[in-house]
């Protein structure tokens, strides 16, 4: 369960970091937005190393599902755009997929 906390925090910092560059390069905000964005992206990378997984690729694949959940939450909370029902269906599928990827090795026989 702690993996999901790390995934969520990593996603939050990755989205915040990318959002800083989005604001600078797409919304015409000051280039100073890049500094906290870079710090946020460093924190994202460090947080991903906390995931309990034997292989980085599997951790990153599972993280992708949680990233999608966090992105839709970001859309709703930060950008104040109401997610579509199709967004929520996709979120549900991604969480199931991330859980299967993360827990699958525990149930596999060597």
From TrEMBL:
Q: Which residues cross the membrane?
A: 5-25, 31-48, 60-77, 89-107
Question: Which InterPro entries has this protein been placed in?
Answer: EmrE-like (IPR037185), UPF0060 (IPR003844)
Give compartment(s): Cell membrane
Q: What is this protein called?
A: YnfA family protein
Q: How does it sit in the membrane?
A: Multi-pass membrane protein
What Pfam families would the database entry show? Answer: UPF0060
What family is it from?
A: Belongs to the UPF0060 family.
Question: Native species of this protein?
Answer: Pseudomonas kulmbachensis
Q: Which domain of life is it from?
A: Bacteria
Cross-referenced HAMAP family: UPF0060 (MF_00010)
Which SUPFAM superfamilies does the UniProt record give? Multidrug resistance efflux transporter EmrE
Query: What keywords does the record list, in alphabetical order?
Result: Cell membrane, Membrane, Transmembrane, Transmembrane helix
Q: Please give the chief subcellular localization of this protein.
A: membrane
């Amino acid at each position: 369960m702690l993996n999901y906390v790390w995934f969520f925090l990593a996603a939050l910092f990755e989205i915040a970091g990318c959002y800083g560059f989005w604001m600078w390069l797409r919304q015409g905000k000051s280039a100073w937005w890049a500094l906290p964005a870079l710090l946020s992206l460093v924190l994202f990378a460090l947080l991903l190393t906390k995931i309990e997984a034997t292989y980085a690729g599997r951790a990153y694949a599972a993280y992708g599902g949680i990233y999608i959940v966090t992105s839709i939450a970001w859309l709703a909370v930060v950008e104040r755009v109401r997610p579509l029902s199709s967004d929520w269906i996709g979120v549900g599928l991604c969480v199931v997929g991330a859980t299967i990827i993360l827990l699958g090795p525990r149930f596999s026989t060597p």
